[in-house]
Design brief:
Layout lengths: L1 E7 L5 E8 L3 H13 L3 E4 L7 H9 L4 H6 L13 E9 L2 H17 L4 E17 L9 E16 L3 H13 L5 E7 L7 H20 L9 H10 L2 H7 L9
Antiparallel strand pairs: 1-2, 1-3, 4-6, 4-7, 5-6
Length: about 250
């Protein structure tokens, strides 16, 4: 870093302008001694101070809340009933990627009005392999490999199913490299769920009747007559050279 020292005399006339490296204490002390001997005032190139009115206006300014929140912990919403509706599990091999994406997921849940808990650490998955370095007489020389998978759990409570799907879609769209996701979504129905299922089954049957009518043997027997007509045609006889197994008697 370079700073420029401006040496002025009593008549406010610049006498010396020297670039001084930060940390060169001996050189700065020499300049101060010389200025003291000659009664010269030393000033740095710092900006002039602001007037009180401008300083008050600058002090009253603040960053937007969304920008300030980036430097703080993610905000959370309190759950009213505590009913879990979604369990999102994050997996990765890098702690930095995990912490970054977990922070991003919690902030997205807050702005979608979803109460979220976590990230809750889950047990690590440790996998080890031992493979020979070479074959034949060198097969006793082996090499060990280890892979540790880190996991975190984020649970959404009291959220609407549509909002949860929007949250998961947003996370999938902005997925971070090296972080895998697995979501378990829970949906709850009312006490008359059996009646709703029966009505849905009836609606499906109405559409299936028309499709199922296209399968199986036709009741009018037109299929057999059509086959006989094809086998007895002149073009088919020429192709089979008059020796069709289907037309033998």
């Amino acid at each position: 870093m370079e700073r420029r020292w401006i040496v002025r005399d009593q008549n406010d006339i610049t006498c010396v302008a020297v670039p001084v490296l930060a940390g060169a204490a001996e050189f700065r002390n020499a300049v101060r001694r010389l200025a003291k001997e000659r009664n010269i005032k030393i000033e740095t190139n710092a900006p002039p101070p602001l007037d009180p009115e401008t300083q008050a206006q600058v002090s009253s300014l603040r960053l937007p809340r969304s920008v300030q929140a980036v430097y703080l912990r993610p905000l959370r919403r309190a759950a009213q009933h505590g009913i879990p509706v979604c369990d999102l599990q994050l997996r990765t091999y890098s702690v930095r990627n995990m912490e970054f994406f977990a922070d991003f997921a919690l902030r997205a849940a807050y702005y979608l009005n979803l109460p979220a808990k976590g990230p809750i650490p889950l047990p690590r998955i440790t996998e080890r392999w031992t493979v020979p370095r070479s074959n034949f007489v060198h097969k006793k020389s082996q090499e060990n490999f280890e892979r540790i998978t880190l996991r975190r759990l984020i649970q959404i409570q009291d959220g609407h199913p549509e909002t949860v799907r929007v949250w998961l879609g947003y996370l999938q769209k902005h997925a971070y490299y090296g972080v895998g996701m697995k979501a378990n979504v829970f949906e709850f129905e009312g006490l008359d769920v059996g009646k709703d299922m029966d009505e849905e089954l009836e609606r499906q049957r109405e559409g299936l009747e028309e499709k199922l009518s296209l399968f199986g043997r036709r009741a009018d027997g037109m299929t057999g007559e059509k086959i006989r007509e094809i086998l007895s045609s002149e073009a088919y006889q020429r192709t089979a050279h008059g020796d069709s197994p289907m037309m033998r008697k």
